Amino acid sequence: MEQLNFDTVILGGGPAGLSAAIYASRGAVSTAIVDINMLGGQPSNYLELENYPGFQIVGGYDLMEKFEQHADKFGVHKYPLQEIERVDLKNKIVKTKEYEFKAATIIIATGAQPMKLGVPGEKEFVGRGVSYCAVCDGAFYKNKVVVVVGGGNAAVEEAMYLTKFADKIYVIHRRNELRADRIIQDRAFKNEKIEFIWDSVVKEIKGDNLVNTVVLENVKTKEIFNLQADGVFPYIGMTPNVEFFTGQLEQDSRGFIVTDDVMATSVVGVFAVGDVRTTPLRQVITAASDGAVGAVYAVKYIESNKEAVSA
Question: Which position among 62, 72, 136, 252 bears the catalytic label?
């Protein structure tokens, strides 16, 4: 196993991680990004964004490619597609199948992933009617009927995207009003392909080889009813990617990492940025902002430690 030493190792190469890499490397510290996937994170799968400043509309992949090119300009060392085996936050060690990284600081930017419904049939039909990425799989539902579960921005935006392919989209929401931004709601309400089913939750997903039925329950009347559908897209929230960190630092009740206003965690020299931390908003712009703050203070930490050692 090859051993590599860096001033800062960033775990995760989405907008938070790439932003952190840019700011850290500009701070004249040796910087590496380690990711289990290709760099770019979840935004690489977004068809387009219209709320990132400076771009009225920009493809998610295109935007993240610009982030990566910017990091390349400052000589960031990139290690994508790494199989992580262990992370020791206290001693700042990251072990993968190929390398052992030793760092002065670690910046956690591993993001979050869609929460599961946790109902019978969900796991069994993943890839056969259950999907968590409309951009990835929407084209498979041309002229079909699909269900989107959720009431936030992600759910409504993905429902809108699916109208490019499906004949009918049912949006299932456990409340009687959406949480999505008003401008997004207005667009969805005007779309004839979208129908909202309020005060309802998914109880089961059924099918033969493929999904064909979604069992719903009205949370007020407790009525159980079947909805014929070919696909289910859950967008009910996010859960943090903290598999290698849990128990090593402070987390909130949902597992998100607790930080202060400079992105420092409860472990000295370890910072957390982006969707993986406790934050009131999870967007590309807030992830990038977190990355900038965390990296600047990681650099300050490195500089202060070097001064202490030399003294």
Answer: 136
